[in-house]
Amino acid sequence: MTVTVRRRVVDESTVVHEISGLTLNKETLDKIPSDNRVHERLRASFPNLDIEDEDFITAKTSKTLFSATSKTTYHTAPSGTIPKPESLSNRLPEDHEYAKLLESKNLWPVDGTAEKDWSNRGQHAEFLKSERNLLNAILEVRDILGSTRTAVVQSVLCKRILLARKTIQCNRRFTKEQAIEEVAHLTRLQHSHILQVIGTYTMDTTISILLYPVADYNLSAFLDRLTPDLLGIEEWNRRKFFLRRSFGCLSYTVCYIHQKLVKHMDIKPQNVLVRHIQGTDGYRIYIADFGIARSYQTLEESDTEGYTLFTRKYSAPEVVDKATRGLGADVFSLGCVFLEIAAALARAWSSLSTVSLDRAESEWDRICHLDDLLKSNEYDDSSYQANIEPLQILFNALQTEDRRPCDDLQHIWKIISQMMTVRPEERPSSAVVAKWLVHHRGGCCRAVSEPLEAAKRF
């Protein structure tokens, strides 16, 4: 007799195991396990059965035959290049240095019902340098997405899922403990507009973090291409619609981050990612790179001072001045991102031949040349915090200007001007901004991780 075990990922919280070819009487049902190692337990319960194992992911499915559910688990179709599951002896032992590091960040041990076992060694694993070929079989490199002096980001195919692998070279200046901080923050945050951690592994002096999904652009690159000449009118209109909606999506996501008492501390267009949703004309936006973020136990603890890493152009005045800074610093940085989105929309409108020249004149034209405004600073400081006064003058002009190409953005200017005030106590909270922009949000905004999708192109 042959029994087929199929695993379907129904949604972000449920994996359904479907078992066919087995008479499901009461005695049999009592022996069927409800965990994610169904095939192993079936072999133990029914040693004479020939069990075939099939995995695949689907967006929606209904339960048929017998279904045993478990929490979200990393299940994908087997590939011919993937080694067979290894014994439990390859999992991290309790006394392993990496296990202790993970445990100190509340990342280990992993709940077996929620574990994303991408490696057949668990969600967090160790690989020896001599096992590089084995690792390359599990994670097939597809592209280089970016690199710095200490890290490289690649897209890798794991079974059928395309992941981003961030490999960090650790040393005395940047330790493994510091590298794993980002994992701790992302594990604390489960949101459809935040990258999710699939797993990690260590090899010699490096730590690699596996993230989902892989984006197509960062927001800065996406905005640079927002012209009808490059995209064509139809795609241009789709992207404009997406960007208008992104005001609501980003504000809601930052509000969620703050509700979890996490301060991102480096919100900027390069850390906001955009992905084309395969099989559709739509896009989705994500907040990424929590490498210098901080988590707190209470709201009062989030007010900190002293030196911290930051990106000067998008940082709030109190961050640059090393003064006391709270969650409002993220609101200022988000306002800078909103300003660049609005500027790109204005640039796109002014480049369209059907828009008369008088509608792109005066103050409106200045927003189309935002870089020129920042570069005109008498102290050669092109950061936003150093140019708040001329920016506020610009915002006031845009709010009172009678004729403009994008009348539906008028209220956005007012919100941005309030987010980018000098004094943090005068800024709205992220919750207030999210409330103001609630009508810009779509059904994509949910406080759950995005379900994994198999890559269509291998």
TrEMBL record:
Alphabetic keyword roster: Kinase, Transferase
GO biological process assignments: mitotic DNA damage checkpoint signaling
MF GO annotations: ATP binding; protein serine/threonine kinase activity
Domain Protein kinase per the UniProt entry, residue ranges: 139-437
SUPFAM superfamilies associated with the record: Protein kinase-like (PK-like)
InterPro entries for this protein: Kinase-like_dom_sf, Prot_kinase_dom, Ser/Thr_kinase_AS
SMART domains attached to this UniProt entry: S_TKc
Gene Ontology CC entries for this record: nucleus
Gene3D superfamilies reported for this sequence: Transferase(Phosphotransferase) domain 1
Protein name stated in the entry: Kinase-like domain-containing protein
Species for this entry: Clohesyomyces aquaticus
